[in-house]
């Protein structure tokens, strides 16, 4: 399939990067932080009941950049990378055509699963931002984390959150074909901290091969709406999930965005 180059977190081992990282010179849990199994309010639970107790200030480009998390917000040994590097992260394990025969209501469900893979490959999990948008990338060993703050003041991020909430059922397991290679994809819901006006978390696991060896890519994906603005987090790698860091990014990042929208300076990072 043909893909347009775009920004997105791509999570690959450096040793396998040559075989799986698609980057051209021209391209510009299952577990919550509270340790319980109780899920937070998901997007599907607020469908049709849009809650907007958040500040109504318009998010500017400077504000979006101020709202970005830092290394201290996600602790561990994460290192911030250059913006140009994060811009060009690409993961070939997410490329492929969904096998329609895996689904009972083939066309509709396969389309949703294809949209999920495409939106992970591109940088538009909640659709293209209609306003300010800033991102920041971090790397830790063979894992990567991409964090984005964006405004959707002329669209509706709630619609996309509601859609994400349907995917664990629609796309619980399916097959992707890329040339002669087949990969198995699984999607489950993960809980998130009870922050923002609505939120949705997913874990996407892709089993295939990289550089001729068996490989499993695990991505924790989170999206939180604050009024007409939202944060998105994608974190993981070939060696396993990065759920703790994704949870921290959601917790700290949502508060930073709220502070910016309220005209305040974000509180110092935990460290």
Automatic annotation (TrEMBL):
Signal peptide: 1-17
Keywords: Signal
Compositional bias segments (type: Polar residues): 42-59, 245-254
Keyword Signal recorded: yes
This protein's record includes keyword Signal: yes
Region of interest: Disordered: 30-59, 235-254
Name of the protein: Lipoprotein
Lineage: Bacteria, Bacillati, Actinomycetota, Actinomycetes, Kitasatosporales
